Amino acid sequence: MGDPAGIGPEVLARALSDPGLSAMARWVVTGSERAFRRALEATGAQVEYAVFNAALPDALPASPVVLLDVGAGEVPQPGSPDEAGGRWAGRAIRAAVELALKGRADCMVTAPISKAHLFAAGFNFPGHTEMLASLCGVRKPLMLMAAGELRVAVFTRHVPLHSVFKYLKKSALADTVLTLARELRRWFGIERPRIAVTGLNPHCGEGGLFGTEDDEIIRPAVEQARRKGADAVGPLPADSLFRPRERSRYDCILAMYHDQGLAPFKALSGDEGVNVTLNLPFLRTSPDHGTAFDIAPRFEADPSSMCAAMRLAARFGGRRWA
Predict the structure, then answer these.
(1) Is residue 305 part of a domain?
(2) Do 50 and 122 have their domain in common?
(3) DSSP string spanning 5-46?
(4) Angle between helix 8-16 and 33-43 (nearest 10)
(5) DSSP single-letter state for residue 121
(6) Under 8 Å between Cβ of 293 and 81
(7) Would 194 be classed as within a structural domain?
(8) How many domains does the chain have?
(9) Coil/strand/helix, residue 185
(10) Residue 261 and residue 274: Cα distance in Å, rounded?
(11) What is the rounded distance in angstroms from the CA atom of residue 47 to the CA atom of residue 33?
């Protein structure tokens, strides 16, 4: 459910009230029943659900939606974020991961959280992706943004821009390209995904004039991944790669850092963008917006991105290795 002080409960309530979407899967909600009920009352959304505390029974009721209240204490008001919201969010994430790892869920959809309040509540992670990786025992999760045929992954995630150079290593980048190719086959059913790898510097360094990383690290890494079977090309200039004609040639673009990939993606995807975490034991999706604490008290949030995240999870989340 995400942070109960944000728009997570609202967009979840609106999404689950859509008969077509609610029928796509059996939905188990982890979080605060009080926050969910408050969102239903404020929006007028109609959702039939059963509530459990602490744990789910072995046999679930016939209700189309099941809510597991994770019991994290006081529930903050919409638009009044604090440490309590981070505590609810963290416990909800942990409960959902446990269900997935036990085989009781095929995939996981997460509503927005506040990274600062998650951290303040004692969950020492910079965001969802890192927390999920830790809970699953995975060292190298991969962040992908998806909207229809537009897919953008990032090599580095939540790190300062000046640290990107420190993380940019040939072997690590080659491994990321190979992992991305494998996960696109696994979850999206793309038999031989074609991957475009961006450069790091303007004009891919312009032969060393604007930096040498493109020629000394990125190009050899792409060649190494190609020798191991990946259909990848690069480095390619990021400033032109997102044009319709250029990006249509590829199944996915791998950007070197967060804003290089996410800024054009969000400009192009509108309200249909979905954040996907790859290289986990299960598929995780999320809307590509934040908690929006400022508008949460008004209950006027657009659920489009949450609906898109839930549809993608329901469509692909049950895939397993062939």
Answers:
(1) no
(2) yes
(3) TTTHHHHHHHHHT-HHHHTTS-EEEEE-HHHHHHHHHHHT--
(4) 70
(5) T
(6) yes
(7) yes
(8) 2
(9) helix
(10) 13
(11) 12
Closest CA to 200 of 171, 232, 173: 173
Domain closes at, from 78, 105, 138: 138
Q: What is the pLDDT of residue 158?
A: 84
pLDDT reading at 32 higher than 70: yes
Cα atoms found within 13 Å of the Cα of residue 140, Cβ hemisphere only: 14
Amino acid symbol at 204: C
Q: What is the pTM of this model?
A: 0.89
Summarize the confidence of residues 208-220 as an average pLDDT. Answer: 94
**What tokens appear for 180 in the block?**
């991305």
Q: Are residues 18 and 84 in the same domain?
A: yes
Task: Give the model confidence (pLDDT) of 40-55 as tens digits.
Answer: 999 999 999 999 997 8
Residue 311 pLDDT more than 50? yes
Q: Give the strand order in the sheet containing 27-31.
A: 27-31, 65-69, 49-53
Range of the domain at 172: 141-279
Examine the domain organization and report whether 3 and 132 are in the same domain.
yes
Specify whether the CB–CB gap between 266 and 91 falls below 8 A: no
Extract the tokens encoding 49.
Answer: 């659900």
Domain with 184 in it: what CATH number? 3.40.718.10
Whether residue 129 is found in the same domain as residue 168: no
Fill in the amino acid letter for 136.
C
Residue 291 tokens read as 């908690």
Whether residue 319 lies inside any domain: the answer is no
Alpha-carbon torsion (95, 97, 100, 105), positive or negative:
positive
Q: 205 pLDDT band (50/70/90 cuts)?
A: confident
Sequence-ordered list of residues with C-beta below 8 angstroms from that of 65, at least 6 positions apart, any chain: 16, 22, 27, 28, 29, 47, 48, 49, 50
Q: State whether the Cα torsion 186-288-117-84 is positive or negative.
A: negative
- Say what the pLDDT of residue 4 is: 97
73 CB burial (10 A radius; 0-12, 13-18, 19+)? exposed
Same domain, 132 and 1: yes
Q: Which of 95, 118, 124, 144 is nearest to 6 (CA)?
A: 118
217 in a structural domain:
yes
